[in-house]
Design brief:
Distance between the termini: 31 Å
Number of domains: 1
Strand order of the largest sheet: 1-2-3-4-5-6-7-10
Strand content: over 45%
CATH architecture: Beta Barrel
Number of strands: 10
Largest sheet: 8 strands, antiparallel, barrel
Structural class: mainly beta
Number of helices: 1
CATH class: Mainly Beta
CATH topology: Porin
Shape: elongated
């Protein structure tokens, strides 16, 4: 039993490459203006596959300011589709962002919180060596305030 779990864990974290095609690095850390963090966020991203395309998840921490300062926690799952250009990807996915504002004293329950459902449809471009990337995306938001057509741009580093 433990041997199977250990082997499964090793397979999950391994990144074996059998070709010379461009393959993005594994872990990524990036900052984003706008996007799923609603105003600005710092995010960690982890691909779930080791191929040129595939699913990835990201989680971050950010802030949003409207009638106060909100702490935001974006979480998304997305799929990267390789485009014709080397290192270019179409990025499509969905996510959820939790937001909370401490209006007075969080221990007294005096807070405003809401959940936003988000989408991602964007473009991502990796540097030649795959260590850096730029992304721009349409990230619509649906929450208790309605539908908001939102945009996000970010830069990041990979292979952490």
């Amino acid at each position: 039993m433990h041997k199977n779990l250990y082997l499964s864990f090793l397979l999950l974290i391994s990144t074996t490459v059998f070709s010379q095609d461009f393959i993005p690095r594994r872990n990524a850390l990036f900052i984003e203006a706008g996007g799923n963090g609603l105003f600005t966020s710092v995010n960690y991203e982890r691909p779930l596959t080791s191929a040129n395309k595939g699913f990835a998840f990201r989680i971050g921490v950010g802030m949003y300011a409207e009638n106060g300062l909100y702490l935001t926690i974006p979480f998304t799952v997305h799929y990267m589709f390789p485009l014709n250009n080397r290192g270019s990807y179409l990025d499509a996915g969905t996510g959820i962002t939790g937001s909370v504002m401490n209006t007075n004293d969080i221990f007294k329950g005096d807070e405003d919180s809401f959940t936003s459902f988000t989408g991602v449809l964007g473009w991502r471009k990796y540097s030649r060596n795959g260590n850096r990337f730029f992304r721009a995306a349409f990230t619509p938001v649906i929450n208790k305030y309605g539908f908001v057509p939102w945009l996000g741009i970010g830069i990041g580093f990979t292979n952490l």
